[in-house]
Structures are given as C-alpha cells and as structure tokens.
Design brief:
Blueprint lengths: L7 E5 L3 H12 L5 E5 L3 H12 L9 E4 L10 E4 L11 H22 L4 E4 L4 H12 L6 E3 L3 H15 L6 E2 L2 E2 L7 E2 L5 E2 L8 H12 L1 H9 L4 H15 L4 E8 L10 E9 L2 E5 L6 H20 L3
Parallel strand pairs: 1-2, 1-4, 2-3, 4-5, 5-6
Antiparallel strand pairs: 7-10, 8-9, 11-12, 12-13
C-alpha cells in the first residue's frame, strides 16, 4: 500500500510575521506538518503550544517547535527572521547584520535540505532573496521572495474601493522593488478587459497609498503581518498544489526589459517547481524607465554590501 508522504512547511523566525503566517497556514490546512524555528526557542514552543490547544476546532495538522534538522523533509522553508534596526544604525549596517543572520540560517538549512523551496519574506525582501540565492547556491527557481505580491494586492484593493468593485475582479500589477521605487503598471490595469476610467489625480492618490501602506500601518500599530501572512499562504498554496498560478513574486531577472542579475517583483508562473517561468509584461516607456530605476537602486544596495 502506498502511503502518501506528509507535506511539511518550516517557518524560520516566529516574530509577528512568522507566527501569523503559521497560524494562517494552520487555519487553511495547507500542509500536514508545520514547524516553527526561532533563535528564541521558547517563543516557538509557546506559539506551537498555543496553536495546538485549538486542534479540537481544526483538522489534523501537526504543529511543533523544531530545529534546523526539521527542515530536512520540508517542501517549503519560509524565512521571516531578521534583526530590528537599532537606534542610530544605518540601513546598510542593518542589511549587513541581516546578511550575517541569513548566512547562518542558510548554512544550517542547506546541510539537511537540497530539494525544497526557499520563500523569503524578510525585508528588504529583494536584497535578502538575492543574498539567499548566492548563499544557498540553489537554482533561482527554488529561491523566491514575496516580492510585490502584497503591493499588488493593496493596489487592487484600493482600485476596487475607488470603483466600488470587488478587488478580486481588478487586474493590476505593481512591479519592481517591494519598497519606495516600486512601479504601478497603469497601462495594463483593467476590470474584465475594460479600461478603469480613473483620472490622473485619483491614480496618484491610489498609488501613493499603495506605496506608503506599510508606513501607515507601522505608524498605527507597529508592524504589518496579517496581509503578508495571507500572501505567504497564497504562494505556499500555489507550490503545494502545483497550480501554475500567476503571482507577483520576487525572482532573479535575466534581460527582463533590459534588467538582469537582480531580484525584483514581476508576474511569475508559480507551481511545484517554484518559479516555473517569468511573464514579460508589455510596459509603457515610463514604466520601463521606472523598472530600470528600481533595478539600479537594488544593484547599488547589493554593491554597497559587496555581494
């Protein structure tokens, strides 16, 4: 009798984003096994215990606080770990500290797992994804960043609000950096193939609120974690179910409108392989220029930390 192998997702870093992601994956019963791994093992133990107490209301998912050894059988390893910025510390100094943390994490992960998919959520996600590719030496299609999937969701939500249309019926993309240099692709935004009919002033407001959403949320409550947890869940589902879903994740670009050797968010076909292929959008000249600016910003950051 063939026994189906249990599906396992390991989440490394169980701060606000990591623990919320595990909880979201648990509620939606995405995997048979969920492993929480953190430098603060007691925090992981507490989160796992708290979730296990809800099992009478859920299915049969196994949840536990584990070690890097538990990454061995994981189909997906989600990394949300990272250091918080210290007072007086520059962004580049923080990046160097996080690069050191990732160096340690990936050394442990790649000792025991050679087949899985790395899903990076730690910010700046495009930089950390590129560093993960270089450190792991895994093929690029198996090293994915959450990219502009959340930004695109915010964009679609705000367009839907403006038009009083369900955001699931809005087709619109944010590409480039998950950050200040991201690019709205207004030229392709549509509802059922029809133009949106939104004025320039309204467009500017929608994009500004999309780009600055994280700042607004952090100012109000200190961190963002619900929507990014849903984005992580969406990517994991596309992988585990071999969906071939089109998602705006961060991947290594090679001659994408002239952009190469950086990780940026663009529409990709995501299935059990990870990123099966990259979809090349037909961009306006202004959008292409914006993508190039975004790529240069990321390349300058990578050069500053000598990658």
């Amino acid at each position: 009798m063939n026994v189906k192998k249990a599906t396992r997702i390991a989440v490394i870093g169980v701060g606000a984003v990591g623990s919320t992601s595990v909880y979201t994956l648990l509620l939606r019963e995405r995997a048979d096994e969920l492993v929480l791994i953190d430098a603060n093992h007691e925090k992981a133990v507490g989160d796992a215990l708290d979730m296990n107490h809800g099992m009478p209301f859920l299915g049969r998912t196994k949840v536990w606080a584990g070690t890097y050894e538990d990454c061995r059988d994981a189909e997906i390893i989600v990394i949300t770990a990272g250091a918080a910025q210290k007072q007086g510390e520059t962004r580049i100094d923080l990046l160097k500290r996080n690069a050191s943390i990732f160096d340690s994490i990936l050394s442990e992960v790649t000792k025991v797992n050679t087949h899985g998919i790395l899903l990076i959520a730690t910010n700046p996600v495009d930089v950390m994804s590129y560093l993960s590719l270089k450190k792991s030496q895994w093929p690029a299609h198996r090293v994915i960043g959450t990219g502009t999937l959340l930004d695109s969701a915010r964009f679609r939500y705000l367009i839907g609000e403006h038009l009083s249309i369900d955001p699931r019926s809005v087709h619109a993309h944010i590409i480039g950096e998950h950050g200040d240099s991201e690019v709205p692709v207004w030229s392709l935004a549509n509802v059922a193939g029809t133009e949106l009919g939104i004025g320039e002033e309204a467009k500017e407001g929608i994009f500004t609120n999309t780009r600055d959403a994280a700042y607004q949320i952090i100012s109000a409550k200190g961190a963002t974690y619900y929507a990014i947890a849903l984005a992580i869940d969406r990517i994991c589902t596309a992988i585990l179910r071999d969906e071939g879903a089109v998602l705006n994740v961060s991947t290594l670009l090679e001659d994408y409108h002239g952009v190469s050797d950086v990780y940026l968010g663009v529409p990709c076909i995501v299935d059990k392989q990870g990123v099966r292929s990259v979809m090349k959008l037909k961009l306006s000249d202004e959008e292409t220029a914006g993508l190039h600016r975004s790529a240069k910003k990321l390349r300058d950051i990578l050069d500053s930390i000598e990658v």
